[in-house]
Amino acid sequence: MRASHADRERAVDVLKAGFAEGRLTQDEYEQRVARAYRAVTYTDLQLLVGDLPQGPVPLQPPMVLPPPAVPPTFLPLPEPQRTNPAATGAMICGLLTPLTWGVTAVPAVILGHKARTEIRRSGERGDGMALTGVVLGWLAIGGWCLVMLVTLLALLPKT
Length: 159
Prior knowledge:
Blueprint: H1 5-20, H2 26-38, H3 42-49, H4 85-96, H5 105-122, H6 127-155
Helix pairs in contact: 1-2, 1-3, 4-5, 4-6, 5-6
């Protein structure tokens, strides 16, 4: 990258500070200042001030445009979020529906919908767990409705 006049002036300021602190001799200071004013690139300036404690001139010029915004997907979470307890309960009730012959299906649906509402409002984790509870609960309820319908149809008198 090509250096600007302001970059050269910053390098000369660093050289002045180094000379004032006794880090450069008079001859070395004058040679470096002359080379700084003739410098074309940042690398030329870096070589002149890199050994001084004020630090090197940055290798890249300051950005004219603001840096691109980082998508929220790539930003770290501010703090670990807790999982919504109703979502955990919904998933457990949903998974237990086959073992309980559908008794836990209604609590799974209720807890799942409650958890999803709370998650949207508070930003907690557990939306997938709540959705699992809702889906399994509705599948169990639908299954029981189908069993009752088939049983009712089987019990109807045939004409």
